[in-house]
């Protein structure tokens, strides 16, 4: 069950994390971040915003957030992913890779106040779009990832931490070199837009429409009630960002033209795995109980951190800092987070509204099957009983 950087990145790709970024109630007396963003006037007036992608997971939320604040949106994509979305939004079709078909031709000679790049994974391809747009676009916002960091062994790492590298920068194997290639994509955007680029490095992106099950597993499993296998002792850190909070803040960076590099993951106050699971329980009002099992036992049972136990990373391991990255810079620039219970509730409601066959397909992407969970729980109770007898 040892959690390696390579294993996480390859596993994330297999779950659809690359596609996820491209693609698909508040506390009493408080105003939700989303509501506050929509009711306050846009800073700097209405903007013309080009989104590279826009029809998958983060993209639609960017469109909604931008339009809610009075901005005009244009989408550029291949027209293959959910083309029925946003019939009243201008859509330009082409390919990010200039070597394919007409490539970026639809963007030639066009101008926008800002571009948000949600679909850049290969430096050559990001460079092509950034250089083409630079003369006629004022601001480039690149959606990157915390996977750009060379290492994530300790909590509190910030934007100055060393970045991952690849020995051959022409190697475009995204599955093998995801973090390093994203780091080079950042450099390509900065080179084309010096002093006019914003690099946003999200952690785990979650919420309604998430195609990966990387967070959804927990609100869905907890809602079913009963005894729930839980990793660690409950005190391990958990970090993620609701896709709607990420989208709304990205639009605010366009309005204020905040440039620089920002880790965009949350929440703003430390959250533990126990806090996460309790929020899921509150969201569904289930009768779930949590059986916390230590990392050594889970390793013996071949229960993998992050994949079988989503969100959780092994404490003290080489990626222990992955769930405790500093977001202080982004928070200081206005990044806000809705309550975890709201994210859990909305994610559960979205999942429950899916067709049964879609639910079955998503359940295969992360987390444990009910049968496997029962097996592991039985082994844990057997071990605990043996320990008690030995005393």
Tell me the β content: 5-15%
What is Rg? 21 Å
Q: Going by CATH, what is the homologous superfamily?
A: NAD(P)-binding Rossmann-like Domain
- Secondary-structure-based class equals alpha/beta
Terminal CA distance reads 29 Å
Provide a short characterization of the protein structure.
By secondary structure, this protein is an alpha/beta fold. The chain contains 14 helices and eleven strands.
Describe this structure in words.
The chain is built from 14 helices and eleven strands. It is an alpha/beta fold and 391 residues long. It has one domain: 3-Layer(aba) Sandwich (Rossmann fold). The strands form three sheets. A seven-stranded parallel beta sheet has the order 3-2-1-4-5-6-10, sandwiched between helices. The longest helix has 21 residues. The radius of gyration is 21 Å and the shape is globular. The two termini are 29 Å apart.
Any descriptors?
single chain, 391 residues, alpha/beta, Rossmann fold, seven-stranded parallel β-sheet, two-stranded parallel ribbon
Give a topology summary:
Layout: H1 5-15, H2 17-22, H3 33-39, E1 48-52, H4 58-68, E2 72-77, E3 90-93, E4 112-117, H5 123-133, E5 137-143, H6 174-192, E6 197-202, E7 205-206, H7 217-223, E8 227-231, E9 241-242, H8 243-256, E10 260-264, H9 273-284, E11 289-293, H10 295-300, H11 328-332, H12 340-352, H13 356-363, H14 370-390
Parallel strand pairs: 1-2, 1-4, 2-3, 4-5, 5-6, 6-10, 7-9, 8-11
Helix pairs in contact: 1-6, 4-8, 5-6, 7-9, 7-12, 9-12
